[in-house]
Structure formats: C-alpha cells, structure tokens
Amino acid sequence: MGSTQNRKLAVGWFDNAPFREICAPHVARIKEIFFAWPGVLSCRPAPDYTEALRARQIEDLRWAREQGCSLDTLFNCNCYGDRAVSPELADSVTAAMKAMDAAGVMPETATTTSPFVATVLRRRFPAVKIRWSVNLRVHGTLGFESVLELFDSFYASRERHRERDWLAALSAWARARGKTVGVQANSGCLRQCPFQTFHDNLHGHDRIAQSKVGEAFGFSVFRCKTHYAQGNREDFLRATWLRPEDLPLYEPLVDVVKLATRRHPDPGKIVRAYATCSYDGNLAELMDPAHAFPGSFDNAAFSASPLWPRVRECPRANDCVHCGTCSALLADAFKEPSETHREEMR
C-alpha cells in the first residue's frame, strides 16, 4: 500500500474528542484541516462556541500548521437567505477572514457553495485558494467550464466517487487547467438523496430546532436514517462511501480525500481507519452521519467477498436495475443483531 505514505487526507476539526492526540500519530497522512470559524454558517450544526472553545480551536489549528498541514475554512452553507448577494454577507466573510489572520490561522484554502462568496474571496483575498464544495453536486466537467475563474479546486460529485476511470479523467482535465480535485470518503448519505439539498439548506436556519418541529409531524430531515430503519439495507451498499482498505485505489487519482469528522460521535475511529487504510468493525459506524443499524456491516466480509468489487464498480450504480448482486453481498456482509452479539461475546 504505497499510497499510505501519501499526504492526502483532509480532516474536519472536531471538538468532542482530543483533536491533537488523535491526529498526531497520523500527521504524515493528513494534508489539510478544514474548519468553520465561530459565527460562520457551514453545512453542519455549529457548536455553542465559548471563548474557551475558540481558544482551543485556534491552538489546534496552529498545532496542525506546525505539523505541515494546511488549513481550509468553510463558507459552505447552502442557504444565506436574503443575504445571499449582499454587502452584509461580503463584509461578514471579510471580517471572518481577518479574524483568522489576526489569530495566526489564515487559511490557505476556503471552501464554499456560494459563487458570490467565491467572488468576494477572489477580490479581497487573492492569495487564498478557493475550493468548490461537494455540496454543489456538479457531476461532470461541463458544470465547471463556465466558472473556471472562480475556483482553484473542487470536490467531485459524491454520486460518481467510486468511478475510478471517471476520476482519473476528471483529474487530468482539472490539472490541464491548473485545478485540483478531491473526494469525500465517508459520506453516509443515500446515493442521489432527494432530501439532501433540503437538508443542507436547513443548516442556514437552525436545523436542530426545525428538526424538533419536524418530529412533531412525524417528519425527519435524515432520509437516510428513516430509509434504513424501514429495512432498506441494500441501499447502504449502493451509497457513495469508500472503504478504508480501498483508499489506495482512489488516492492516486485525486489530490485530497475529505473525512467528515466534525460532528461524528467518534472522529478518532474515522481518522485511524482511513489513515491506516484498515478497519476492523462495523463499516456503518465510520459514516457521517453514523448509522445505527440493528446489526452490523462486517468490514472484514467485504474484503473476503468477490461480490464487493462488482458492487463498488457497478456501471449502473446511478440507475440501479436491482440485479441481485447487492442482495447477495448483503447476505455475506451483514450480521443480524443476534450474530453481532455472539461475536462480541467470544
């Protein structure tokens, strides 16, 4: 696994576990740390920032830079309401960037979903590289051709993350134009999730509070969780995540591999698995959001099964014909609760 020596991973800063202690053994694999600055909307619920938490974030980011990791700040909320194109948004972005600079953590990169924010950053902070967020969901080169001046790098569409030939061609196209490409390794979203844009937009409007209101109507913004709870386990196999053991197949094709760790209950588990390209456990627990199935997707079974490469590289992944391969793999890889309990008792 020669690629395990490469520095390709982007880790989201987390506050629910000891960040430096977890990352320190793997800094040779970590290329970037991405983070939302206090007060900046991003595509995750923000923690309740205190001065102590802000100081801890700054210390962690400074430490990461000392280890040779670059910094990537997020302006990747999907919705800014009636401020989407406004002096107020431009000035708030500017103020946040200046505050980072004053704290000694001016980022090398800024990731955004907003073409307006990209324009503001280009004009006011020309030294900062601009990356377009995976949440833009652009599925091919045509979507980027008309806006090449607005970004330096971009995340490929999740729906095509497993297509190695396509990633290789996309990266070649990007590099020929002075751009670079990234992928996200551990998305727990459904492939082509019809709730995703709706869900992401809520992060600009206090998603947690609105989720609680939704519960009163029997409604959940997490379509993946409710869908899986109804027994649709095969769709987990059809999703877009990459196994840690498969990372060496993809890392040479891209410049950065994003690990969603910011709001995960056990970010250390994710960092260790993808940094070492090895994981012994329930594969669903690595995903963001972490899925609590009644049972376990045994990661070792994926390595042993000849069906997994067929599922991973299925040419009809986005137009599934339900050929039976996922069903057969599910029978090999999924342990029912009673089986999982027996394994734990051994």
What does this structure look like?
There is one protein chain. The protein has 346 residues and is of the alpha/beta class. It has helices at residues 19-23, 51-66, 87-102, 115-124, 142-145, 164-176, 196-202, 207-216, 223-229, 234-237, 247-250, 267-276, 299-304, 307-312, 325-333, 337-345; strands at 9-12, 30-35, 70-75, 109-112, 129-132, 153-155, 180-184, 256-259, 296-297, 334-335. The strands form two sheets. It has an eight-stranded parallel β-barrel, surrounded by four helices. Strands 9-10 form a two-stranded antiparallel ribbon. Helix 2 (51-66) links the parallel strand 2 and strand 3 (70-75). Helix 3 packs across helix 4 (115-124).
Topology:
Blueprint: E1 9-12, H1 19-23, E2 30-35, H2 51-66, E3 70-75, H3 87-102, E4 109-112, H4 115-124, E5 129-132, H5 142-145, E6 153-155, H6 164-176, E7 180-184, H7 196-202, H8 207-216, H9 223-229, H10 234-237, H11 247-250, E8 256-259, H12 267-276, E9 296-297, H13 299-304, H14 307-312, H15 325-333, E10 334-335, H16 337-345
Helix pairs in contact: 3-4
